[in-house]
Amino acid sequence: MDLTRTPEEEEFRAGLRTWLAKALPSLPPKPSPDDWPARRAYDLGWQRMLYDAGYAGLHWPLDAGGRGATPTQHLIFLEETEKAGAPYVGANFVGLLHAGPTIAAEGTPEQRARWLPPVLRGEEVWCQGFSEPDAGSDLAALRTRAWRDGDDYVVSGSKIWTSHAEVADWCELLVRTDPAAPKHRGISWLALRMDAPGVTVRPLRTLAGSTEFAEVFLDDVRVPVAHRVGAENDGWRVTMVTLSFERGTAFVGEVVACRRVLGELAREAHRNGRWDDPVLRRHLGRLNAEFRALWRLTQWNVSEAQSTGGVPGVGGSVFKLRYSHARQELYDAAAEVLGPDAADLGREWTLDRLSSLSYTIAAGTSQIQRNIVAERILGLPKGR
Amino acid sequence: MRFQLTEDQKALRDGVRGLLAGRFGRAALRAAVEAPGLDRTLWRELGAAGFFALRLPEAEGGVGLGLPEAVLAFEEAGRFLLPGPLVATHLAAGEVAGAATGETVVTAVHGGLVEWLTQADVVRGDTAGAEPLRSVDPLTPLHRVPGTAEPAPLVMLLTAAEQLGTAARTCELAVQHARTREQFGQPIGAFQAVKHLCAEMLVRVETARVAVYAAAVTADPLDIAAARLLADEAAVRGTRDCLQVHGGMGFTWESDVHLYLKRAWVRTQRGESVTESEERLARELLSGTG
Question: ipTM, 2 decimals?
Answer without folding.
Answer: 0.95
